[in-house]
Design brief:
The structure holds 2 protein chains of 2 kinds. By secondary structure, chain A is α/β, with parallel strands linked by helices. Chain A contains 8 helices and 18 strands. Chain B is built from 7 helices and 13 strands. A 9-stranded mixed beta sheet of chain B has the order 9-8-7-10-6-1-4-5-11, with helices on both faces. Chain B has a two-stranded antiparallel sheet with strand order 2-3. The chains are: A alpha/beta, B alpha/beta. The complex binds flavin-adenine dinucleotide.
Chain lengths: ~300, ~260
């Protein structure tokens, strides 16, 4: 089997997700090559053949341009699998490439067992194995699912990729993440509010519990999107990554994008009415309880002692 | 301006799921169903565009068994003008390329200026359908949009990247846009609008009329993952649970020392 790994490059840098790509290649035992629209000045740590399209010429991500470049590399490599990270780059580009090649696309692969791809269903409550009916496939990998491989040290051997192409989508520029006043990474205890708090008034309950521990409060994305908490408090892939001594998730289901931002915490407590909520997979303690009943009692006992 | 919004009906993610008898999907009996969360932002964006330009007509499309009409009606009550129900009892076995194929087949000769979808569904979560529709119709497609503005027939959008960074992009119409959480504030249908929605047109299209492509993959087996975390589960009266939790935190962490 041969796989083509699609690395990501943004604003002058190769992104760290290539460790997932290399981990997947190692797990499958496949021969591999890599593709990137990047720069010779910032090559990925990769010892194989790198199909390089020059970011100076082609600019930052535009879908049709990157699709044509990648198709040109695929034409040379003739891989069985084209492998992306399941990221804003991968989930945008992968379906376009699959469509052009007439191949199946399998999204957010979390495991590879006996030659079969495994993907999550329903917020990771379920999983499924996928049977591919086309001669090859395009896949995207869940962040972290195959990571942890040793970074390679050798330099790649370069093959240049060039095409004549345009795009109807224009790239205008990047907007940096909003800088907020709260640095959650310094807190030893973080108590986070999820949609399960039910109403904005209950933020104060979460804030009070955080205060009782001498910590800070954080939030899941729906709470931030609803403007019940400021963005600087959001934990997860599109917010902050934290690893406090204690993380208490209140009314948070445990979606992968939230877990990515907090699963390295030393000790995790979840308060949730749903015994099967995926947060239970990373929690050291799951209190199956209505947070509006349990949290006030906890605050009272903590402040009394 | 002609707008198409594509929506999916999904189960409540807090449901107690069961594996279906053929082990290929979850059992769809006894679940509470709702509009896919991401699609609520797509419907809201369509209605906002209509409010902005005035002269617009919104078609909302959903594929599935009869019960998806309930979700179409919610979109009509939010402000869409017409519903299209592609009647397909086998919807849960369809893969994203087939779903996109049906939507593209329906949309092909209708000259939509703007097609909106959610960026992914909450159950299958493939995140492919919107972009595949764009590719199949040869339209520009922009995914994961968190800010949307339309002026002089041009869209200026912000795509969400990782870590809170956004890419500002622009494209002309017609175009396909997939909507991310937080794009806008989806409205709640008001009672008068729910009543009005009952009188709106709801067209049914047979699956055979639009399904022209073969599946490129299928689910071999759906199952519950083995529980990895040997985490402790606490249940009972709040006071008792609180006491046990505090005891554990004193033993296992240094934060209450
Ligand atoms: C590209 C992308 C990026 C994302 N980035 C992030 C991110 O950075 N951070 C993030 O958090 N999410 C992110 N998300 C969203 C993520 O997928 C989930 O939608 C989100 O994390 C869900 O938040 P939640 O757990 O608060 O809400 P839900 O999933 O709705 O869960 C609510 C939970 O509360 C429980 N509950 C309800 N009532 C009570 C009660 N009274 N007492 C106790 N428990 C109760 C329920 O059982 C449920 O488990 C992202 C999604 C995408 C697609």
């Amino acid at each position: 089997m041969k796989v083509l790994l699609v690395a990501e490059y943004r604003d002058g840098k190769v992104l760290g997700s290539i460790s997932d790509l290399l981990g997947f290649a190692a797990r499958t035992g496949a021969d591999h090559a890599m593709f990137v629209v990047g720069s010779e000045a910032a090559l990925p740590a990769y010892g194989g053949t790198l199909y390089l399209a020059d970011a100076e010429t082609y600019g930052e991500y535009r879908p049709a341009v990157h699709k044509q470049l990648l198709l040109a590399a695929i034409d040379k490599v003739k891989p069985d699998l084209v492998v992306f990270s399941h990221s804003s780059y991968g989930w945008d580009l992968a379906p376009r490439v699959a469509c052009a090649l007439g191949l199946a696309q399998v999204s957010e692969v979390v495991d590879y067992v006996d030659g079969t791809l495994v993907v999550p269903v329903c917020n990771a409550k379920l999983r499924r194995t996928v049977e591919i009916k086309t001669g090859g496939a395009v896949v995207t990998l869940q962040a972290g699912a195959f990571g942890g491989s040793e970074p390679e040290t050798a330099a790649p051997s370069l093959e240049r990729v060039a095409v004549e192409t345009t795009d109807r989508v224009e790239f205008l520029g990047y907007e940096a993440a909003e800088a907020g006043g709260i640095d959650l990474s310094k807190a030893e205890v973080i108590v986070s509010a999820g949609r399960g708090i039910g109403k904005p008034e209950n933020i104060s309950l979460i804030a009070d519990l955080a205060k009782a521990f001498g910590g800070e409060y954080g939030a899941s994305r729906p709470v931030v999107d609803a403007e019940w908490a400021e963005h600087a408090r959001q934990v997860g892939t599109t917010g902050q990554s934290v690893a406090p001594k204690l993380y208490i998730a209140c009314g948070i289901s445990g979606a992968i994008q939230h877990l990515a931002g907090m699963k390295k915490s030393d000790f995790i407590v979840a308060i949730n009415t749903d015994r099967d909520a995926p947060i239970g997979d990373v929690a050291d303690v799951l209190a199956v309880a209505d947070l509006t009943k349990l949290v006030p009692v906890l605050i009272e006992k903590l402040t009394a002692s | 301006m002609k707008i198409l919004v594509c929506i999916k009906q999904v189960p409540d993610m807090e449901s107690k799921f069961k594996v279906a008898a053929d082990s290929r999907w979850y059992d769809t009996a006894d679940l509470a169903w709702r509009m896919n969360e991401y699609d609520e932002f797509a419907v809201e964006q369509a209605v906002l565009v209509k409010e902005q330009v005035g002269d617009a007509d919104i078609t909302v499309l959903s594929i599935g068994p009869d019960k998806v009409k309930e979700t179409i009606k919610k979109a009509l009550a939010m402000g869409c003008d017409r519903g299209v129900h592609i009647a397909d009892d086998e919807v849960s076995s369809r893969e994203p390329f087939q779903i996109a194929g049906m939507i593209a087949e329906y949309a092909r000769d209708k000259n939509f200026d703007l097609i909106l979808t959610g960026m992914q569904s909450q159950d299958r979560g493939s995140g492919q359908v919107g972009i595949l529709v764009a590719e199949l119709l040869d339209l520009p497609g922009v995914s994961t949009v968190v800010a949307f503005s339309l002026a002089d027939g041009r869209l200026e959008l912000r795509r969400e990247l990782e870590g809170g960074v956004k890419a500002r992009v622009a494209t002309g119409l017609p175009a396909v846009v997939t909507c991310q959480l937080g794009l806008n504030n989806p409205r709640y249908p008001t009672l008068p609008n729910i009543m009005k929605a009952k009188k709106k047109e709801l067209i049914t299209v047979g699956v055979a009329d639009v399904l022209k492509v073969e599946a490129r993959q299928q689910t071999a087996k759906l199952y519950f993952p083995e529980k990895k975390g040997g985490g402790l589960i606490l249940e009972g009266e709040p006071a008792e649970v609180a006491d046990r939790l505090i005891t554990i935190l004193k033993e296992k962490t240094a934060v209450l020392a």
